[in-house]
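Students often ask why we bother predicting the structure of a whole assembly rather than each chain alone. The short answer is interfaces. A chain on its own may look different once its partners are present, and contacts between molecules only exist in the joint model. In this exercise we take two input lines together and write out one structure for the complete complex. Read the inputs first and try to guess which parts will touch.
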Amino acid sequence: MTDPQPPQQVARIAQQDEADLVARAVAGERAAFGILVERYAGVARRVARAVLGNPEDADDAAQDAMLSALVKLEQYDARRPFGPWLLRIVANAATDRRRRRSVRRVESLDVGLTAGGPRPDTTAERRALNERLRQALAELPERRRMAVVLFDVEGYSHGEIALILGIPEGTVRSEVFHARRRLRVLLADWKEEG
Amino acid sequence: MKEPLPFDHRPDLVLGRALREALDPGDAQVFTARVVALAGQVRVASWDAVLARWARAGVAAALVVALAAGYFVGHATAASPSAVRPTVSDVLIAPPAHPGEVEVVLASVIGNN
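Now the answer. The structure tokens for the assembled complex follow.
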């Protein structure tokens, strides 16, 4: 059995692979663009949802961002990682959409569940926790939401998030710190209630 | 268990997992298929397309500039014919402007003799 490749090497291979996919997509190869979309659909939709709250709006924003990225693919510098470049477009698309539209409020919580009422089953519990997390996220400033999702959910580094959001790295650290503090309190309360 | 610090430089796996589940967008295949289908209608701005677009405007502009330059040069040349300078042969062949000067010089030379 071969030894696993070191993470930096894996990242380099992935980057080369993505640069190749981008070149093929620019040349008009639809399948290459499809692979890129498939690879980044999850993160793009989650980041957009963190900004917009509403899943339909989030999907529309992610879709607009992907198509906008396709038009701008020639501007992508293949020496840099593709993910942060794409996610910057996604973040901007989501922010623009949020500004343009009055975002519908996330559905109100089931009062019985939030007030510590009876918990019918684990699925319902998880659903309620997800709802509370989404609501807690919605209460955070937009940039803070994106920072914590990109760091704790998607595993991007502070430097990469700084590139995506167009803010200094120190600000990213601060945003992640404040978001975590708020969300961890909520998670801890949930565990204690359970 | 040690409580995770908010300023930790590593991702918080517990929080990350919970948030991922909360933000789970659902069926990725439908989304991907929709975006790829729409991508067919999007025209990628390839370098040759951009060049072709600029080339048409460039050729038209160059034509206008060339016509304007030709007009002005031609107009300037026609407006000032006196500005044409005589060649050396023209000066030698042409009759002298004051023919008397030569006769006076000859008469004075002969007279001295």
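Check your guess against this: Chain B is about 65% helix and 0% strand.
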